[in-house]
Amino acid sequence: MTLRETLLALLVLAGLACRSPLADLRSGGGAPVLHLETRIEDHSRHLSRLCEPAGEPDAPQARRAALDRHRATFEADFRTEALARGLRLDPAADLRLDLTITSLGEVRPKYILWGIASGVAWGVGTGLLAHDPRLAVGLGVYELVEESAFWIGGSMLMGRWSSPAVVEARLWRGAADKPLWEETYHVLWAKRELEAFPAPERRRREVQLRASLQKVLRQVFRDLEAIPDFPKAIRPPERPPAPAPSAGAGPAPPPPG
Description:
alpha/beta, 2 domains, 5-stranded mixed beta sheet, 5 strands
């Protein structure tokens, strides 16, 4: 095989690897119809990470209520975008889209533990590969201290100064045991979506988290557009630029309306 043929084969394999598994999903004619299900896992530890407390006690019931409000708003925003696109949502549809918010407003303890454990495992494994038990213990302790400071300190900063959100998406057909497609979306901050809200509201925690979830929805719809005949986003037509006034001409008349 020549070098040119080898490069061509590698390009084809790379294209197939990057191709979305949704590209071959046919809905049986016409645009697909989805059954939407949204969930949110109860993971919160601080009410202030979810909303402005306004004197409300930081109790499990209050945090659960705040999470439910975020889930309801997330679903409403999805339905609004679906309506604007002309996408049909039907509980009886064969294709079911599950959207689960697994983390919102703060980093979950399990992610912190996984990060610390992976660092410690790397240090201990390096020492064992070198056949030096003392090196394994030393690297393990060093990684434990370093990773703990990084993950615990980093999670506190992200929870306070950003609006993190993690959403898991899965697309199922009927009662299949394995999803047709799945993806996990991570967002730390959603500047573009937040700027769509009035300036006085942008400091509110609820608004910041809603913006992060709207960014997730934008990414979800972008991926779903790989499905054949999936309705594309509808954007308002752009106004043509106004002609430049000629020399010596008076001021341009105001636009009609």
